[in-house]
Structure formats: structure tokens, C-alpha cells
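FORM 7B: Structural annotation worksheet

SECTION A. Query
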Amino acid sequence: MKVRSHHLDSVQRKALASIRNQIVHTGQAPSVRKLAALLGYRSPRSAAVIINRLQEAGYLARRPNGELRLLRSPSETTDHARTVQVPLVGTAPCGAPLLATENIEATIPVSVGLARPPHRYFLLRTQGDSMTLAGIKDGGLVLVRQQSTAENGQIVVALIDDDATIKEYRRDDKVIMLLPRSRNPRHKPIILTRDFLVQGVVVASIPNV
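SECTION B. Predicted structure
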């Protein structure tokens, strides 16, 4: 029987929060020894017991390489805000679809005020400074609404030759342009006619705090 989120004790909640924060900010779950230190335990055995219980409750799972994956997070709010679980798919895929299982690092509760149903959403960790003028900073997260089309001026996640990029979308009758928004002169527009897919539109930027 799976434990419901409101049945988790304070230590289990703290452990989940620590695991989630490590994944969000570093892309990797903490080791058992690291989690023990974060929770204030001298022995990693206590952390291992908590991990096992959270796995049994359906909050955590193990990847084939043994690393932890966060399946869901309990709501940490006290005002009963409505949230949905949104997958965090790391930084960018290389050869695999964005929402392939191997890319999903965790699922994060996001307010339905941002992730509005009935659309589907994902979170993507950002890299580089090509979109800083649009408020998208290196190492932060963007919330992306899944869709295969976009309008001029929208910021999109595009898949080009199996690599994902975040850029402003522009299209005319002949070409598609993906434009950077940065003061760094090394970032240039990408001009495309084919071999290009829109994976979604960025609806919110979450800085790395």
C-alpha cells in the first residue's frame, strides 16, 4: 500500500525536499552518505532506511545505474494550493525525445496557475547566456507547455539534430529563425527550413535560487 503524501512524517518530507533540491540544482540525486549528512545522521544506514520507505511509498525509484529518481513530491504548502506534477527533463536530450523516461530526473509540483490544464508541461534546466535578456538565466529552470507549433515572438524549446535549444521563434514565408536574446555577440540567429521540431513554448522562467 502506497503512503499518501500527507502521511509522510517530517523527516521523510525533509529527505524528499533534499533529494529534489539536489536534482533540480545539480542534475543528480544525493548519495546515501550525502543524504545522511543533509539530514544530520552520522550513519548512512538511517538515510538508507528512509530511502527504502520512500521507494515503497511510490515517491522514489532507482535507475538501472542505481541513481535515485524522484517520481513525485508531496505538496509543501499549507494553504491547499492546487498543484500538478511536472516532469523535470534535465538540460537537453541528445538523440532521445525530451520526455523519454531516461531524461526524466524528477517530477516537481507546480501550481495550476502556471501549469494550466488541460495542457501538458515539462521543466527544462537552462544552460548558457543566450537568452538572458528574456529573463532566462544560466542554471535556472523553464516551464514549457508542450505543443508542436508557435507564433512569432514566442520563446520555444526547439529540437535541432537531436539537440534542444531555447530561442525566440520567428517565421516568414521562406524560413524559420531562432533568435538569441543576449548581449553576448557570439550568439547568432539560427536559420532553418527543415529538420526542426518545436517541442513547446516557454511560459515561465524560474531562476536558480
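SECTION C. Observations
Residues 83-206 form a domain with the Umud Fragment, subunit A fold (CATH 2.10.109.10). Confidence is low (pLDDT under 50) at residues 1-6, 76-80.

SECTION D. Sign-off
Analyst initials: ____
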